[in-house]
Design a protein that fits this description.
By secondary structure, the protein is mainly alpha-helical. Helices cover 72% and strands 0% of the residues. The chain is built from ten helices and no strands. Pfam families: TetR_C_32, TetR_N.
């Protein structure tokens, strides 16, 4: 008799629990834009951790708790998702550097600001920087770190050209020096990302010291000592 009462009470508790579960409000479904942003966030994290090649649509879908067709619906595939992620990182990086070069200041101040802008981005968003410095997928001609550096160098060219002209140097060589400066800062930033042995301001100070003191002592007609004149 006691066992029957216990079993009846147990069934009653199960039914009450089920009724409560059924009466709980359903989870709100994400809107299209919300789902897209969620997938971008998930993809960004995976691309930063594993790179483009090692990341799969299946993994993106699993992490976002959706089916694979949802990813294809929003981006057409892994390449489309990657392109959106990279484009956002490019805009974030170029936006910071462009803002640093907007105000008319002396060349050294602008050099310091641009250097700090890149290092600020690396410090603030190391995952985004890792995405940019990884290899782009095959066949993609834009969005790679090389194209980012090229865009930054274009911003620097006209500043160097004006500085060269003022110092009596050939302004036509400004594009060469712009790419050298940007490459030097970017490669050092890449090294600093994994080896934080120096503070950001120290890294920037050493970069500017090398770049500026080298710039101030440029020869008008540089030649290689090991190459004979033709």
């Amino acid at each position: 008799m006691g066992a029957c009462v216990d079993q009846g009470a147990e069934r009653h508790n199960v039914l009450v629990t089920a009724d409560r579960a059924d009466s709980s409000p359903p989870r709100a479904r994400m809107t299209g834009p919300e789902r897209r942003e969620q997938l971008i966030k998930v993809g960004r994290r995976l691309f930063a951790e594993k790179g483009f090649e090692a990341t799969t649509v299946e993994e993106v879908a699993s992490k976002a708790n959706v089916s694979k067709p949802v990813v294809y619906q929003h981006f057409g595939g892994k390449e489309g998702l990657y392109a959106v992620v990279v484009d956002r990182e490019i805009q974030a990086l170029l936006g910071g550097i462009s803002a640093a070069l907007e105000e008319p200041e002396g060349a050294r101040v602008l050099l310091e600001r641009a250097t700090l802008a890149l290092l600020d981005y690396i410090e603030r968003d190391p995952a985004g920087f890792r995405i940019l410095v990884r290899d782009s997928p095959p066949g993609q001609s834009t969005g790679s770190f090389a194209s980012v550096l090229g865009d930054v160098a274009v911003h620097v060219e006209h500043l160097l050209a004006a500085e060269f002209k003022q110092r009596g140097l050939d302004p036509k060589s400004a594009p060469i020096h712009a790419h050298m400066l940007v490459g030097m800062v970017a490669l050092t930033g890449q090294w600093w990302l994994d080896r934080r042995k120096f503070k950001k301001d120290q890294v920037a100070a050493h970069l500017v010291n090398l770049a500026w003191n080298g710039l101030s002592g440029l020869d008008r007609s540089p030649r290689l000592a090991t190459v004979r004149k033709r």
